[in-house]
Description:
This protein has helices at 50-58, 100-110, 115-128, 144-157, 174-191, 202-208, 226-231, 236-241, 251-258, and strands at residues 12-21, 24-34, 39-43, 65-70, 73-74, 85-88, 162-166, 194-199, 211-216, 219-224, 246-248, 266-270, 275-278, 286-287, 289-295, 300-306, 309-315, 326-329, 333-336. Helices cover 28% and strands 31% of the residues. The protein is built from 9 helices and 19 strands. It is elongated and about 80 Å long. The protein binds adenosine-5'-triphosphate. Residues 21, 24, 26, 44, 46-52, 200 line the site of adenosine-5'-triphosphate (ATP).
Amino acid sequence: MSTSPAPNPSAIQITSVTKRYGALTAVDDVSLDVSAGSLVALLGPSGCGKTTLLRLVGGFETPDAGQIAVGGRDVTALPPQQRPSAMVFQSYALFPTMTVGENVEYGLRVRKVPRAERRARVAEALARVELDRLEAKPVTQLSGGQQQRVALARALAVAPAVLLFDEPLSNLDQALREATRRQLKALLPSLGTTSLYVTHDQQEALALADRIAVMRAGQIVELGAPEDLYRTPRTAYVARFLGGANIVEDTDLAARLAKEAPPPGQVLAVRPEHLRLASPDEPGAVSARLRARQFLGTYSEWDVEVGDTTLRLWVDPDTAVPERLAVRADRWRWVEEG
Ligand code: ATP
């Protein structure tokens, strides 16, 4: 006799979900399971459908086809406030006339949580994001980073099984974004919630996610653990999007760099950190012409031309431009073209 596993209380199950806006298919037959307590980042360029997919899970949009379940329960037809999820928005979406505490309490009022319990849960949520001292302050007197933590506390206060993040850090300057990212990374495991996290920032996805789903034109192109996707992308699209690999479509050049003929339908992916300046006589070296150089602090980025192909490589910033310039790939990977 086979026994089926007990339904997981906070796992998200997206099954064959499609969402159209007129002639445009924003989400195209997507299926995705997010296991309990884990974080999946939806990563992709603007317009690939990641926000729409998140909003479908939150109940802010209704799919044209497919089902969404949370903890084994079909929530496809439920409005947002009846779903076991809470959303953290890019814009914070705080109420400007309310205090910090009132903002955090809002979701609990909507859910008709009794007053005494509301007080306790507001205090606990604010403590988690280290804002307990600011509870009585008007929310407009807080910095952007603090406001985003209020928005997070508001989501945490309703103790959701699922947290939905819509580019939560993209309105913050870089230093604050990184600091808040670290706080989130430290906080999330202790909550035990399951998270879906939309971002177009690959570093954020790499740093926070247990798995990354890279999207393109409404579909998930590849899904995997950050290190696996980064090191062994299957497609040129993911190799390019995650870490900006050079994609060499010229089969002759690809064969020279890889020292082997391209497999059918495959192109060469070489990361900028895996290309280096070489002596023109070295095996695998190809002569190149310098097109542009940018000093970026810890390294310089050089764009070099080989025939019609431009290759980008990272070079020690103290390196002088050699008289006879050649490059060589130390590591590379064959990936599906397109
Ligand atoms: P961004 O990072 O720019 O938000 P995204 O990957 O999140 O991009 P979506 O916002 O999900 O992309 O949009 C996917 C596609 O659906 C886009 O072409 C967008 O123009 C379209 N779209 C989204 N919402 C609507 C809507 N309410 N009405 C019509 N089209 C929409």
